[in-house]
Structure formats: structure tokens, C-alpha cells
Amino acid sequence: MFQMTKLHHNFQHTKASVFAFVFLLPTSLLALFLLVLLACNGFSVFYINHLVPAKSSPEPATLLPEILPGDKTVKKLSSSSSVMYAVKEENPPFVSRTHSPLLQKPNVSMASGPKQHRLGHQQTLKTLHLGAKTKGFSSKIKGFFQNSKCKSRFFMTWISSLYSLGNRELLSIESVFKSHPKACLVIVSNTLSSNTGNIVLKPFLDKGFNLIAASPDFDFIFKNTHAESWFNRLKNGNVDPGEVSLGQNLSNLLRLALLYKYGGVYIDTDVIVLKSFDNLRNVIGAQSVDVETKNWSRLNNAVLVFDKQHPLLYKFIQEFALTFDGNKWGHNGPYLVSRVVARVTGMPGFNFTVMPPSAFYPVDWSRIETLFREPNDRIHSDWLRRKVEEIRGQSYAVHLWNRQSRKVRVQEGSIVHHIISDCCIFCNSSRSSLSL
């Protein structure tokens, strides 16, 4: 009897288990199906994200040598050359923010494009600083030149804040007047053309030097050139200013238009003038040369000396307006003048001279730090002394390449230390010391 009861109990338990299994079977299958679906979906998401990153990491802009007319290429020079200025092409520290993904993403919102365009246009107008202050530029410069009895005309542009104007830029101004005490210097700048800017420049005025800072009237400066139509399109939002600083590109254009309208000398604010430019006329400097052919491979626009309305300046401005690209560093500056000069060389009607690198760029950007170092032994000291004499004898100016050397300290006994002593006017001030 006991065995029969146990058997019956086991049968009931088995029956209950079977019913439970049958009852739970749909739920289990559903859970299994959902688990498989979730796994497939996760794999799909991972696979898509692997192909199309949500945010591409920025990459440095690739600056290949530009193709010049007649299949002439700006050649890349060996960095192992013993000639200090004959080195590889510049690879500037510009990072593009427009790296394209492998696959195009769909537009998230149709309204995002116009909004970004409006913001970009507003930023462009803010950069231009358009206003009543600039409208007096023409009469201000005309009166300055008439009343100052200038023996020569120099131009600079300053597109940054007043507080970023340092000892090096002020030394550049000093060097102009040290070599050209009767010159007139116009600094085109919104920040220096202010009450605080006047305080910064007052020591030069107290010395009797002819110096003025003026906010640019772009409409007047660009009038009757190809820059005029380009600038109007920029103001109307029909020109993409690009990733490179608009101020930097406007400086590239301003220097050309100023020389075209007035004639004279343009120098960057990191150029130190060593001797008089009075015997220079219609010249541009080579930055580098081919060590085999001895022909220039790259020109630079940090120093320009041209007559009023010179045809080469006209071509430079035309090239800027027709080929402007705000996403390529140097395209509207050194590359531009190199393209145009290569194109017009040998053509009638152009009268200009390409100066060797020793004239304005005796040391290339990649080796500029060597000018700031003190001698560390007798061999180095002998080389440094010879280099100083070479620069003094052959160079009209030295480009200090601020982009690469701004944070490099001047060491006592270095080449730059000697240059400061040669070119300073306020030689007891801090900027004539090692704080440059």
C-alpha cells in the first residue's frame, strides 16, 4: 500500500512538471527569440559604428607642393642640406576640422545648415569690425603722408588683440626706425587704433618718429581692384571663410592692396629690419632654393617692396580673388605669390626681382631656434660669430618665424641677442633684453 501511494505521488509530480513545462514553453521560446534578436541588433550597431565613427578624429591638413603653370612644381628640398635655408617645405601646425568620414552620414536636421551658415556669417562680420571708425582711413592716411615728409613708406598689419602685442613686435617697429629714421610707418589695426594702442605707441611718437595706427576701411582699400568684388561677396555671406583664420587671410590681401594703392614696403611684425631698404625696388624674397638648380622653390610674402599699382601686385590680388581657399594654410599667402611669379616670369610688362633667401629669410623656419641658442663650445662659438657677420653683411632683414619661435627664449650671446643689440632704439628697455 505504501508503494502504491509513493508511485501515485511520483506520477502526480511528473504530471505537474509536464504541465508546467508545456505552460512555460511559449514564454521560454519568446525569451530565447528576444535574446537572439538583441544579440543581432547589438552586432549590427557595433558593425555600423566601426565603419562610420560618430566623430572623426581631426587630422593635420596635408600640404602637398602646389602645381605651378607649365607643370612646374614647388620642389621639396632635403632637410639634410648644409645650406640653412634650403630645407624641406613648411608643414604648418594647422589642424583641419573638416575631416570626412568613410561614409556620408544622413542630415540630422535640415535646419542645421542655414543656422550654422548664419552664425558663420555673423562671425565674419564681427571679424571685419565694420563701422564708422573705419571711414576716416582715407583722409587719415592722406594727411599723414602729406604732413610727415616721408622718405620711405612702411606698412604693417596687426590683426590680434592689443594684449598679444609683445616685445618682439615692438622690436620690429624699432628696427624699422633704426634703419629708416625718416620713414613713415602705417600700422593697419583695429586694436592699435585706440586709446590704449596710442599709449603703447607713444614712446615712438615722443622720439619724433612718423608712426600712425589706423583701422582699415576695406571698401576704400579694395576699391577698383579684384578684391572689391570678392570682399562684397564675403560681406554678403557668399564666400566661405574656411578653417584658416579669416584675419590671417585678410592680412594677406591687405598687404597687397595697401602696396597697390600707396606703394612702399610691407613687413610682418616678426621681421627684424637690419639695414636700409632704400636701394630696393619691386622685390620679393625667396624662402628656399633648390640645392641642385639654385632656382627658388618657394617665395614668401612676409617682406614686399613694390611701386604703386605695380602689375605684379595686380596679379597677386586677382589670384587671391579668383582662387581663394580658406581651408588651406598658405594657399592665399606664400603659395599664392609663388604660383603667380612662376606664371608671369619671362612675360613682358613685369619688372621685379626675386631676392635670394639670405636677403630676408637667412634661416628657415625649421631651424630658427638655432638663432636663439648661446654657444656651447668653441666650435659653436666660431660658427655663431661667422653666421652673425654673414647675416649683417648679406641680409636686409631676418624673419623670426613667430609661429615656431614665439616660446623660445633668447639666450645670451646668441645670434638673436646680437641682432637685438644692433636694431634696438630703446636699448635699456625690457624688450632689448633676453625677454624677447
TrEMBL record:
PANTHER family: ALPHA 1,4-GLYCOSYLTRANSFERASE FAMILY PROTEIN. Residues 306-429 form the Alpha 1,4-glycosyltransferase domain. This is Alpha 1,4-glycosyltransferase domain-containing protein. It comes from Hibiscus trionum (Flower of an hour). Gene3D superfamilies: 3.90.550.20.
